[in-house]
Design brief:
Strand content: 5-15%
Bound molecules: 2-acetamido-2-deoxy-beta-D-glucopyranose
Largest sheet: 7 strands, mixed
InterPro entries: YOR389W-like
Oligomer: single chain
Keywords: Signal
Shape: globular
Number of helices: 18
Helix content: 25-40%
Number of strands: 14
Distance between the termini: 44 Å
């Protein structure tokens, strides 16, 4: 595993020697096998973390995931009895509480077709029925009318080790920014919401269709090897295909009905009504209010507690065998998009990804051994994040000081019997990569190597610059390429504050650009421009 270092001059005279004329980590990453190394590295780093997955909100990757038997989940509903069939589960009770409330959907127009209260659009088109029929899911029965008046929080435990497909990014965020591309475009070929009559295009939610579609894939295409899908919005959630098969009931409690009244649901500007589609575990609406206020305060603490990970080893991902659009020969950033998109790609262009995803599911087990590449990316980030930021800052006063500090950082990789910049960069780059993966690199191994090599080579080059601004320019370009979300973390929040970033449907453009510590009871300011724009 010794990539061709075309861009780095052999620099035997040491750190002060002049480096090659031109360098760019981006160019390095275009070498075969190293394409999109930065994005794949961040995909691994952000996985199952509310922080990174909210900022890098357009996931284009799929992971095999497992949740250990016994793990507790929450489901909010207007029903007081065990829920059957395909439904939503939240990892955090605060998330499910948003749905533990009286039935608030539109009148059930067509009881014959199941009168599905979770389907906010009242979409009973043929497509919907077709999906339901194929997925063999019984129509959800009418809730008893007396149950409609109250809200219930159900606690379930996984009755077995669940086998899930994790759809990364903010994949439960019903936005038009691309958070749904990997489902609606790649998995479902833009069929979601086609039965919708009252609205232009797909929308507002299409969640029941997505759930039934995913479970149909699980049953047919994926040969029953998958129990559901794992996604994220304001909290991680599971769409579980068969509640009665895979869950044990722990308890059902009736929630304070006033608390249910606070139930959220984004404002909707078309008709002045809230979209009533399911937004998550258990029912209509999405977590959080339209733009601010008390609704978000209920879940903001719980959600921010999972910024750095779902915790408790509740989810394990198979990092050695995952599928990411970043490794395919397609343009994911049309018109210089900041976040990857799939909606401009044809069915045929996406077919290799679908095919490989199916093959991976059919041949790999979510629970088989895989290297914890997220832990490896953590080592890289904790080693370099702060120093890169410092080196590029105004607090760095002179080239001599920068060169000396880069020297200290790279010292362990310099062999003074034989100074050689290529070998130095390579020793530095492979520091965190286990030997077997250096010898036969996998996708995550290449991504980590691509990123660490960019860092090490850029630092060597920066140290070889003669003036501070040129050196810092190299480091700033590197940081732009790396795009680590650690650089957006707030510092020094008080104990009544959380660091606020946009989490659909909440948050402003400013929250995205400059996350700040804010009062956890008033995290979102509805007067600012909403980051997410309209609703899906
Ligand atoms: C759900 O399934 C269980 C077990 O199959 C059954 O006993 C129960 O009556 C069902 N509940 C409803 C509401 O259909
Ligand atoms: C995917 O969608 C396109 C456009 O609607 C359609 O022409 C094509 O037949 C679909 N392909 C499959 C396999 O469903």
């Amino acid at each position: 595993m010794r990539p061709h270092l075309s861009l780095l001059a052999i620099c035997t005279a040491g750190l002060s020697a002049a480096a090659a004329a031109k360098s760019s980590p981006v160019e390095y990453s275009t070498e075969p096998g190293y394409k999109n190394a930065n994005h794949i590295f961040n995909t691994i780093q952000d996985s199952m973390r509310q922080w990174g997955s909210s900022l890098h909100h357009n996931g284009v990757s799929f992971f095999l995931a497992t949740v250990p038997a016994g793990t507790q989940f929450y489901h909010g509903t207007s029903r007081s009895s065990f829920v059957n069939g395909t439904e939503w589960l939240a990892f955090e009770p605060e998330h499910a509480m948003n749905f533990a409330r009286p039935h608030m959907g539109p009148p059930r127009r067509d009881p014959q077709h199941g009168g599905d209260e979770k389907d906010g659009k009242g979409d009973k088109g043929p497509n919907h029925e077709e999906l339901r029929r194929k997925s063999n899911t019984p129509p959800v029965e009418e809730a008893q009318s007396d149950e409609d008046a109250k809200g219930y929080l159900h606690t379930y435990a996984a009755a077995k080790h669940l086998r899930l497909v994790y759809i990364d990014g903010m994949s439960a965020g019903k936005t038009q920014k691309g958070t749904l591309d990997s489902q609606d475009v790649l998995l479902f070929n833009n069929t979601i919401g086609n039965g919708d009559s009252g609205r232009q295009g797909p929308g507002p939610m299409g969640e029941r269709e997505r759930a039934l579609g995913a479970c149909e894939l699980a049953e047919d295409t994926w040969a029953g090897r998958i129990d559901g899908v794992l996604r994220m919005e304001a909290g991680f959630e599971v769409i579980l295909c068969d509640f009665e098969r895979d869950l044990s009931l722990v308890n059902i409690i009736q929630v304070n009905s006033e608390s249910g009244e606070r139930g959220p649901g984004p404002k909707h500007d078309d008709d002045g009504k809230r979209p009533k589609g399911p937004g998550g575990p258990g029912g209509p609406g999405g977590p959080g209010g339209g733009g601010g206020g008390p609704d978000s305060s209920r879940w903001a603490r719980a959600v921010s507690a999972r910024y750095t990970g779902i915790g408790g080893h509740r989810v394990s991902l198979n990092y050695d065998n995952f599928i990411t659009a970043f490794t395919y020969d397609i343009d994911l950033f049309p018109k210089d998009a900041i976040h990857p998109r799939l909606d401009h790609l044809s069915y045929a262009e996406l077919e290799p990804i679908r095919r490989d995803l199916t093959a991976t599911i059919l041949t790999h087990d979510p629970r088989e051994f895989s290297w914890d590449w997220q832990a490896t990316t953590d080592m890289v980030i904790t080693r370099y994040s702060e120093e890169l930021s410092y080196f590029s800052s105004e607090r760095m006063v002179s080239m001599e000081s920068l060169r000396a500090q880069i020297g200290m950082l790279l010292e362990p990789f310099l062999d003074y019997s034989e100074r050689n910049a290529v070998n130095e960069a390579e020793r530095c780059a492979t520091q965190f990569i286990p030997l077997p993966y250096q010898e036969s690199p996998t996708i995550p191994a290449r991504a980590v190597h691509g990123v660490t090599h960019s860092i090490c080579a850029t630092l060597l080059e920066a140290a070889a610059e003669s003036d501070l601004s040129s050196a810092q320019k190299r480091i700033k370009e590197l940081m732009e390429y790396l795009d680590w979300t650690t650089w957006k973390q707030c510092r020094g929040c008080q104990d009544n504050e959380i660091c606020v970033i946009p989490i659909w449907p909440m948050g402003s453009v400013e929250d995205y650009a400059h996350p700040q510590c804010k009062d956890a009871l008033q995290p979102y300011d509805s007067s600012e421009e909403n980051y997410w724009g309209g609703f899906r």
